[in-house]
Hints:
A: Serine Threonine Protein Phosphatase 5, Tetratricopeptide repeat, B: alpha+beta, 5-stranded antiparallel sheet, 15 strands, 26% strand
Amino acid sequence: MMATRFRTTDGTIALVNLDAQIESLERQAARGRLLSRWSADLVDRLTLRGQILGCIADCERAAAMAERLACQASADGLAFLARARTRAWMHRFEEALADLDAAERLGTAGAEVEAERAAIFQAVGRYDEAMALRRAAVERRADFEALGALAALHSERGEIGAAEHWFGESRERFRGVSPFGLAQLDFQRGHMWQEQGDLGRAREWLTCAWRRLPAYAQAEGHLARVEAALGEREVAIPRLTRLAGASDDPDYASELAGILVQAGRPEEAGVWRARAGVRYGELVARHPAAFADHAAEFWLTVGGDPRRALSLAKQNFAVRQTPRAHALLSRAMLACKNEPAA
Amino acid sequence: MADHGAGPRSIANPEIDICDLHAFPSPEHPGNLVLAMNVCPFLPSAATLFSDAIDYRIRLRPVRVASTGRRAAFAVGEPERMFSFTFDVPRTLGGGRRVQSGICRAPSGEVPVTVGDERGTQSSGIRVFAGCRLDTFFVDQLFSGGIRLSRRLPEPTAINSTAGQNAMSFVVETDGAALFGAGAGPLVAIVAETTTRGSYRARQDRVGRPEIKNFIMMDKASDTVNRDLDVRDLYSEEDGFKLRPDYLGCYRARLNGSMAFYDALDGKTDWPLDEQGNHPLTELLLADFLVVDISKPFAEVSYFEIESAMLRGVPHQTCGGRWLNDDIVDTVFTLLVNNGNGPRISDGVDQTTAPASRTFPYLQPPNPNPPPLPALVGIPE
C-alpha cells in the first residue's frame, strides 16, 4: 500500500499541536486584537480541526469569527478570503463568491483566491469554469495541492481514470510532514471508489487516510460504511458507535441507525435515529443550505420521512445543480410518489 | 527575523522551520561547546510536541582559513560530526499528561531526552535539552522590513517584534576538543537542518548564519537576474557545506544585488563590486555556516568577528559563533551598510524581554501568555 511511502507526523502529535496553535491564538486574541493575518489563520485552523474531528461546533465558531473579522477589517482582503471559506462551508456559495471578489478588489489575489473560487464552482456544479481554474493552477505550479484539487474535480465529474491518474501524481509531489493534506487526499480517493462501488479500493484508501490520522472522523465514518457494505457489520458498528458518541455531526448516528436496522437491532437503531433527527433539525434551522443535502439523505432513508426529504432536496438543488443533488432530488420525488397514501 | 518563516515552505509548515542557530563556548564550563537550535516559531506553548517525522540535526565540520582579504574564504574539512534529534509518539500518563521522549544521536553515543525537562540529560559526555522556550531573537521588524519597503533607513521604533514569543528549542553541550580530536584546528563550522525521516529523505530547512535568507535573500528588487523568484526554498534545500552548482548563479545574483542595495543606503560605497559585479561578501556568506573558535573563551559579542578579521587580513580575537544575547541585527546592518566605516546601524532593540542565562539550558522558560503577534512589513504576500 502506498501509504507507507511517506512518513508524516503522527496524527496525535499533529492534533495536539493544532490544538496548541488554536489555544495560543485564542489566548493572544484575549490579550489584544489579533492582526487580520492571524485572525484568518485562526479561522483556517479551527475549520481544519472541525473537518478532521467532525466537530461542527469548531466550524461554526470559525464562521462566526470570520463574520466578525470581515466587519472589523473591512479594508483587508484576507478577512474576506477567510469569510469566503467559511461561507462556502455553509453552502452560502453566492455570498462566498462575492467575498472572493471583494478580497480581490482589496488586493488579495492569486492562487489562494483562485483555488477557493474553483472549489465553489465545483461545489455548485459549474464544472467547466472550475476545470479552467484548476488547469491554470497546475500550469502555474504542478504541486501536491494543485494536482490533488484537479484530481478531486475529475472525480466529482465521474472521470475516474483521469482522477486516479492525478491523485497519483499529486501524491508523488508530496514533500511535507504534516499528515492533514495527505490524509484528506487519500480520503477523497477512497470516497471516489466508494461512489464507484469498488469497495476494495475504497477500503484501501480510506484505511490509508484513517491510519495516517486516526482522529479523522470522516475517513473512519466512510470506512465503516464500506465495511458494512462488505458484510463486516461487527467492525463497522463499534466504529460508528464511537464516532456518533464523540461527534456533533449527525451523519454518524444516521449511518449507525441504518446499519443497526440491517443487523436486526431495531431498538438501538431507534435511539440513534431519534438522536440524528433532532440534530439534523437543529442544524437545518441554523444553516439550512449547509445541511439540506445530508438531512434529506437521512429523511429519505433511515429517517423514514420522504416528504421532508423532498423539501430539503429541493432546497439543496436550488443552491447547487450537481449530478448528486439532482439524483437526490429524483430519489426523493420517486419515494414520495411511491409512498402509500395516508 | 533571523530565519523565522524564511521561505514559503517554512511559512506553510512551521514544524520544519528553523528560526535560529546559536553556537558558543560554554560560559559555565570552559572547553565545552554549546549548540542551540530553535524551530517552530510564533505559536508553540508548553503543550507543543516535536514531530516524529523530522530529524532535527546540527552538523559540524572542521574548517580553516583558506584565504583572507577581498577573497576571504574558509576551507571545509571532510570529517563530520552530527547531533541528531528524533522523537517518539508521546505517552499519556495519569491525569492525561503527555510525555514525549526522544533520542539525541551524538558522536559519542545515543542520549535519551524528555521533552521539557529543564535539567536535560547528561550522558556519553554531552548534555542535551529539548522543549519549548522563549524565542531568543530580538529585532525591530518595522525597521528591518521598513528598509526593504521604503528603500532607505527608517527611524527605528525600538519595539521588539518577537517580544514574549516562544519557540521549540534544542540545546547540546559537548566537549569541544573531543569533537575532531587532538590534531584538529580550533575552527568548527556549524549548520542546522530539518530533514524528513524514513526511506524518503529530504532536507526541509537549513540555517547557518542568521538573516542570510530574510534580510538579504528575500529582497528581489535589486536582483539583476530574477525579480520574480523567491529563492529561499531552493537555498534551504542545499547542503550548507556544499552548495550544488546548479543554482549558484541565482544565489550570487541575489546576494550581489541585495547587498549593493544595503551598501548604498548611507549614500557612500563601502563594498566596491568587482568587474563582474560581485560583492566582496558574497562568496564568504554563501559558505553559510556559523564558525566558532573553540580555543577562545566565551564572549558576549562575537558574531561574524572571525569573518570580519579575515576580510581585514588580521587574526581574529574572539570565539566568533553566536551567543544567545548577541545583537546580530545591529552587527549585520552595520556590516552591510558601512562595513564599520560609520556609525553603528541600530534597530534600537538591544535584548530580549528576558535575556538568556549563563547556565544550562541557557534559554529562558516559555512565556505562558504571549502577546498578540505583531504586524510585519516588507514581507512578500
